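Step 1: inspect the first sequence and its tokens.
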Amino acid sequence: MTGGDILVECLKAQEVKAIFGMPGNQNVYIYDALYRRGEGIKHLVVRHEQSATFMADGYARVTGDVGVALTVPGPGASNASTGIGEAYTDCIPVLLITGQSDSRLANKDNRKLFHGLDQRKFFEPITKWFGRPNTVDEIPQVIEMAFTMLRTERPGPVVVEIPNDVVTAEVVDGLCSVLKIPPKVSVPKKKGKSDEIKKAIEVLKSSQLPIIFAGGGVISSDASNELTALAEFLGIPVITTRLGKGAISEDNPLALSNIHGLAGKRALGSADSMLAIGCRFTQIDTGGWSMQMPQPLISIDADESELGKEYPIAAGIAGDIKTVLS
């Protein structure tokens, strides 16, 4: 068993079903391991690494789970970075796995290495986390941390690079018995504080014409049914962000288009309060933050740092959106 085999077993344990990528000199041993042990994982070859991360991004949006791309380092990874940037902007869980030069070359000038690139620095501004196992026994913990970051709070892309010598290293029998493949990362659902929820209810009760503003967080939390049930129970119309399109069926009479649609604009102008769910109030959605949002404003988000970040709020609930809406 090699480090590559350990990597593939870790991906299988995380229930990875598809990988999009392009084989090359510095990831071919990962492909060998994928061939040997990748039963249940479908691989789709791309003609350009940018396609790999865009396809992984699309896969993640459709399935609601992590999309995985596999490239060589350096130019392969930098080609893939456009898709990673897109995933970072839209908060999509995409994992890019790249090869890397042998560990013994880690202190050499990257400009002198074949496909040399300081990938940690390169990807730092557009990723949620970057990982690198320096030994075989570090592979399981790095992959476990990668999927923890991919699946917790607001999603985002992660990059993991694996040196060639770590991929090809033979796992000795003693280490095989000690190494444990981590089970699928399952993150406890944060419920939100009861006093925050009570405060939000009080605001809604005192409103005559509330409106719901639903973002992509509703979709990534698989909370469309809960959103619809809440809107119908309270009779509150729903507008969406661009990424929130589809959070509520557009056949529903309470669905009033996105925030820039005619019906959405009209409802927004007459609303006396807003319940913002899983939305980040981006530049495009808010016209460069020039739009006035109804006050008082309630915000529900998995990422506590987003609460009140762009607009003042009367109540904020940090927690898993599906759980909080329930």
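Step 2: inspect the second sequence and its tokens, then contrast the two.
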Amino acid sequence: MIPIREEIECCDVLVVGGGMGGLMAAIAAAESGAAVTVVEKADTLRSGSGTTGNDHFVCYIPEVHGTLDAFMRELRQTFAGKNADGNILRKFASRTFEVVQDWHSWGINMKIDGQWTFEGHAFPGHMRTHLKYDGHEQKMILTREARKRGVKIVNKTVVTEILTNEGGEIIGALALDVSRSEPLLKLLECRAIVTATGAATRIY
């Protein structure tokens, strides 16, 4: 029988998954004043689809692309936009430049050769929608920025069940700590949960 830790860990927002999406959600919640915990099955320094770094990012920059409508028409023709929900994609695109500027100020080089560089993912002669950048240290930097904002990161822990009360409201989660040779069950109490488990492309 797997032992259960008696102490219940508490937070306002529990983020399940420490990839780029999970860390950015944690940073946003912490900046809004919430006490945030990230639970990651591996380690936030090397987890998620961006584990080994990325070199391009869908980004709308008004001074480069003109109107958001024009940008969206081109984005919908790319692999990244063809099968995505249109409303969600538009909301995402409208905020990308804000995020790109944050990342650049945190130390992720978003300007190749000192300028905004758009390449690939477009038909010849069409608008380019993917910003080239140097993301080889992005997970380390996002982990650092989350911790600077007071986010608690719990690595090598897998959330196995989301817990609700009789009214169906989220009250916490059950997690399995696999950081030691003998697994340990943990109870986490929270007011909200953000699931950022992505495509699990690095699970193996």
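Step 3: confirm your contrast with the notes below.
The CA atoms of residues 57 and 131 lie 5 Å apart. Helices lie at 20-31, 62-65, 68-75, 79-82, 86-106, 138-148.
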